[in-house]
Amino acid sequence: MAISERTRNLQQQLVESLINDASGQVGVDLESMTFALIEQFGHGIGRDLAAAVEKGLAERQAEILNTTHGQQYDCPHCGRPCRAEPGNRRLTTLDGEVEFSEPKCHCRRCRRTFFPSA
After folding, report:
1. Own/partner pairs for 67-72, CB < 8 Å, 24+ apart?
2. What is the pLDDT confidence band of residue 104, given thresholds at 50, 70 and 90?
3. Average pLDDT in the chain
4. How does pLDDT run across 29-50, given as a tens digit for each residue?
5. What are the boundaries of each domain within the chain?
6. DSSP codes, 2-56
7. pTM, to two decimals
8. What's the CA gap between 90 and 66, in Å, rounded?
């Protein structure tokens, strides 16, 4: 997925704000901080930010799916229409666990549960 110029600018603004905030915190001695600590800080923020973006996009996708399909989806196995119910989904991503809400369906014929986004 290509990243827009606007998104890159927002990312740069966020990075600058995080750097200013981190270097201004009480007890943070930037002069004596090792690169290993700088790296740990950066990775921690990056993982949290990535997980938040993943969760937000997944929830936005669920909203769109509910709106466009009227909460009814075809079973991927037999093709029978199935009604969607709200469901929580937990995925382990590259950035840790992410939990979000999305439609969940159960096909009575196949006795399978599926998430329409998958």
Report:
1. 69/116, 71/103
2. confident
3. 87
4. 888 889 998 899 899 999 999 9
5. 39-118
6. PPPHHHHHHHHHHHHHHHHHHHTSTT--TTT--HHHHHHHHHHHHHHHHHHHHHH
7. 0.70
8. 19
User: Whole-angstrom Cα distance, residue 26 to residue 113?
Assistant: 50
User: Could you tell me how many residues make up the chain?
Assistant: 118
Q: How far apart are CA 82 and CA 107, in angstroms?
A: 6
Cα distances from 42 to residues 15, 53, 66, 111, in angstroms, run: 10, 16, 36, 45
**For the stretch 35-72, what's the b/e string if a residue is b when 16 or more beta carbons lie within 10 angstroms of its beta carbon?**
eeeeeeeeeeeeeeeebeebbeebeeebeebbeeeeee
